[in-house]
Amino acid sequence: MPVQYYIFLSIALFCIGVMGVLMRRNAIIIFMCIELMLNAVNLLMVAFSKMWADAGRVDASSAQLFVFFIMVVAAAEVAIGLAIITMVYRNTHSVDINILNRLKN
Amino acid sequence: MINLVWLVPFLPLLGFLVNGLGRRSLSKSLVGIVGSGVLLASFVISLLIFFEVKAPGFSAQVVQLFDFIHVGSLHIPFAFQVDQLSALFLLIITGVGSLIHIYSTSYMHEESSESFARYFAYLNLFVFSMLILVLGANYVMMFIGWEGVGLCSYLLIGFWFKNNDYTNAAKKAFVMNRIGDLGFLIAIFFMITQFGSVTFPEVFAKAASLGMNNSVITAIALLLFVGATGKSAQLPLYTWLPDAMAGPTPVSALIHAATMVTAGIYMIARSNILYTLAPHIQTVVAVIGLATALFAASIALKQNDIKKVLAYSTVSQLGYMFLALGVGAYGAAVFHVMTHAFFKALLFLGSGSVIHAMGGEQDIRKMGGLKKYMPTTNWTFLVGCLAIAGIPGLSGFFSKDEILASAFGHNPVFYVLGLAGALMTAFYMFRLYYITFAGKFRGTHEQEHHLHESPAAITIPLVILAVLSIIGGYVGLPEVFGKNLLAEYLAPVFAPSVPFAVPHHLSHSLEWILMGISSALVIVFILLARQKFANYEDTGKESTGLGKALENKWYVDEIYDAIIVKPLYELSRFFRDTIEKAGIDRLVNGIGRGVQWGGQQVRLIQSGQVGFYIFAMVIGMIVLFVIGFLL
Amino acid sequence: MGSIQQIIFMVLSVIALASALGVVLSKNPVTSVLCLIVTFFAIAGHYVMMNAQFLAVVHIIVYAGAIMVLFLYVLMLMNLNAELEPQKRNWLKYAGAISGGALLVVLVAALRDASMPAMSTANNDIGLVHNLGMVLFRQYVVPFEVSSILFLSAMIGAVVIGRKED
């Protein structure tokens, strides 16, 4: 099975994430779309890991470890991000990201 | 003693530093003592050096202090050359300089103590620069001194800088000098490229090996002469010197009569071999000198400002010196420098004494009859006039006679014209003397009441200079009277030129005749002036025709103004208004305004809308991918 | 064998893409969250297909179990629903969709001709805990520790930010 399949799949997932970010104003949905994009990348990593392992590279499992690190970063990001969104909601009673342009003044 | 020669310029430098830095705290008397004392000390050292140099069998010595410039094969040491010529100039500068410093302590006494100290600091700096000029063992050192004296001249002409006319005169002097300096500088560059050296012996040796009429030497000689015309106020660059009289009178005496303006003569005398090897340039020097002598003398005939008459007289006398240089009589030129330093300093200091007594009045039409109020000033001034006119027995006679005799040997036409100039000199000097000192007083009553003889600090230098003006000529007696000590003394300096020079030897009878003619005519002209001006009355009549042209200095200033200054002003106005304002300003401001406008437009993109930012980011990514992968 | 794997791949891909579109398009945030969970499960299926068994398990635990629950929790805490959902203006939506699609087209076009080694259908054991542990604690000890510090600081940061000001 050619690795291109996985590449195209993850491109598609990534672009759906991008579209979500562009089309929605709800901060939480945007957040979820970012998670989607991260997962598209993770998927690609695992696909390449498998590809190189089949090609005989002994260090192929490094790619899978990077997936772990991405997960770590994503989890940390979600913790902080949701805390911020909660705070914004508490102050503005809205999760609309366009409200955040108040910061400009 | 020769090894201590550095002390001679160093002491005035010390005086400059002390007076300049302590100008706010030192008292006037202390400043005067420091200013004059350092110069007297320099004079004593110069005297000791002079006697050492005078001893038979002395050959030129170079005292090297340190390496000044050492680049590639070019080697310029900071060194002093002590020989007959520089030792003589040392004596003139420090001797006359000391007298003028002492005179200044009294003359400038009414200044505030700060500007009094400033004055002495400048004067000491000037002496330092002048000493560097004559002591330098190469052209670069000479140039350092040359620029230094130019600077001091500027500072002292504009000493009373609150007066706009005075600062303009200072600027004029500076700019005129700069034109000449450029010639000098290019000459130095020429020497460096052609000879690879600027030290005197090397340059002269290399020049001598090139032979007569070499184009390189001709070019260098001409460029050096351009420098000399600027500094020594020759046609066409002389107009700054009469205006330089804006400075204090002792400054006029020291800088603009006795020392600085003779720098050009010193330079050409020092480079005599170059000029002997370029006879065409020598002719140019002689013609320009003679033209200046006549031209300035004719202007002096009708001037009414006591200092202006003396200024034009100085220009005229400098013309004589250049005439002497041009006809190859280098010794006579240096001789005239010396005697001129005595009697012209005397005349200037005497005029300063008169101006002092008249409370700042400089117009001789408002003077008259000062004889009985100021006896010492009167007789010393008379001695000065007799000396400059060339009455037999006084110093001016011998030096001028030597110049005229050499001119006759070279070309009788030069002699006739030179004699005409000398007669004009006699006439205008005695016109000045009679209008100022004879007749009856024409000033206001108040001025008359105020008239008095000047204090001792002024009269003592006058008396000393008067004595020197009388006896100073006996060091250079013409051959018919005996030995010419000065010519003998200076012979080693001019020795390199001798093999190339064309000797002119006048018979003794011819010399007697020439002397007789010139003396007789001079006396006739003095009597003429006496008859015309002894009982001068200011009629207030406007002169017409030639007289008016002379009074207005042949309109040279106006001509220069019209053909050089005005077009330059117009050009700079064009540059200022059109190129600068419309071109450069608009370009620079336009760039600034464009950036500002662009910033204002781009600022609107920063809307604070996060969605838009992300959108822009994605568009950017697409563009990057297209560029990176698909193109 | 190959055909079965391809069939599984296709099925999982369709589920992942469809539910991903559901995340973006659904009006109700809670539906979005649930769609995202489905997507994650599909991706975990892909992991298993590629011999990354341990990773698949961790993925489900962390994403579906922790992160998504957190999202759901926050959503429900705020009591958001379709009516409160902020909507963009229509043309902005289309612009977003078009630029996202353009990105997709460009990326596919860019990577279409990339030549890469093929994946074999054979199993291998790089995804086993044993192997991953060897690599993690030999080669990547320092990043591992650093990431634990990152986690700690993120935790403290969340507490500090979420605290009520008093």
Automatic annotation (TrEMBL), chain A:
* Any one of the GO BP annotations: ATP synthesis coupled electron transport
The record, for Pfam families, names: Oxidored_q2 (PF00420)
Q: What class of enzyme is it?
A: translocase
Bilayer-crossing regions: 6-22, 29-53, 65-89
Entry GO terms, CC: NADH dehydrogenase complex; plasma membrane
Iron listed as a keyword: no
> Which reactions does this protein catalyse?
a quinone + NADH + 5 H(+)(in) = a quinol + NAD(+) + 4 H(+)(out)
Its localization reads: Cell membrane; Membrane
Q: Which GO terms describe its molecular function?
A: NADH dehydrogenase (quinone) (non-electrogenic) activity; quinone binding
Task: Give its E.C. classification number.
Answer: 7.1.1.-
Alphabetical keyword list? Cell membrane, Membrane, NAD, Quinone, Translocase, Transmembrane, Transmembrane helix, Transport
Q: How does it sit in the membrane?
A: Multi-pass membrane protein
Family according to the record: Belongs to the complex I subunit 4L family.
Alphabetical list of HAMAP family matching this protein: NDH1_NuoK
Q: What does this protein do?
A: NDH-1 shuttles electrons from NADH, via FMN and iron-sulfur (Fe-S) centers, to quinones in the respiratory chain. The immediate electron acceptor for the enzyme in this species is believed to be ubiquinone. Couples the redox reaction to proton translocation (for every two electrons transferred, four hydrogen ions are translocated across the cytoplasmic membrane), and thus conserves the redox energy in a proton gradient.
Query: What do we know about how this protein assembles, alone or with others?
Result: NDH-1 is composed of 14 different subunits. Subunits NuoA, H, J, K, L, M, N constitute the membrane sector of the complex.
Could you tell me what this protein is called? NADH-quinone oxidoreductase subunit K
TrEMBL record, chain B:
Task: Enumerate the transmembrane spans.
Answer: 30-50, 86-104, 116-137, 143-161, 182-200, 212-230, 251-269, 281-301, 310-335, 341-358, 379-398, 413-434, 455-477, 512-529, 610-630
**Per the database record, which ranges form the NADH:quinone oxidoreductase/Mrp antiporter transmembrane domain?**
138-424
Q: Which GO MF terms are attached to this record? A: NADH dehydrogenase (ubiquinone) activity; NADH dehydrogenase activity
Q: Which UniProt keywords apply?
A: Membrane, Transmembrane, Transmembrane helix
Q: Which GO terms describe its cellular component?
A: endomembrane system; membrane
A single Pfam family it belongs to is: Proton_antipo_N
Report how it sits in the membrane: Multi-pass membrane protein
Q: Source organism's superkingdom?
A: Bacteria
Q: Which GO terms describe its biological process?
A: ATP synthesis coupled electron transport; electron transport coupled proton transport
Which NCBIfam families does the record match to this protein?
A: NDH_I_L, PRK06590.1
* Protein name, UniProt field: NADH-quinone oxidoreductase subunit L
Origin organism is: Chitinophaga terrae (ex Kim and Jung 2007)
Task: State the organism's lineage.
Answer: Bacteria, Pseudomonadati, Bacteroidota, Chitinophagia, Chitinophagales
UniProtKB/TrEMBL annotation, chain C:
The protein's name is NADH-quinone oxidoreductase subunit J
Keyword ATP-binding recorded: no
**Per the UniProt record, which EC number(s) apply here?**
7.1.1.-
Which reaction is the catalytic activity of this chain?
a quinone + NADH + 5 H(+)(in) = a quinol + NAD(+) + 4 H(+)(out)
The free-text function statement in the UniProt record for this protein reads: NDH-1 shuttles electrons from NADH, via FMN and iron-sulfur (Fe-S) centers, to quinones in the respiratory chain. Couples the redox reaction to proton translocation (for every two electrons transferred, four hydrogen ions are translocated across the cytoplasmic membrane), and thus conserves the redox energy in a proton gradient.
Compartments where found: Cell membrane
Q: Which InterPro entries match?
A: NADH_UbQ/plastoQ_OxRdtase_su6, Nuo/plastoQ_OxRdtase_6_NuoJ
* TM spans (from-to): 6-25, 32-50, 56-79, 91-111, 140-161
Spell out the Gene3D superfamilies in the cross-references.
NADH-ubiquinone/plastoquinone oxidoreductase chain 6, subunit NuoJ
Q: Which organism is it from?
A: Chitinophaga terrae
Recite the UniProt keywords alphabetically.
Cell membrane, Membrane, NAD, Quinone, Transmembrane, Transmembrane helix
Give the protein family. Belongs to the complex I subunit 6 family.
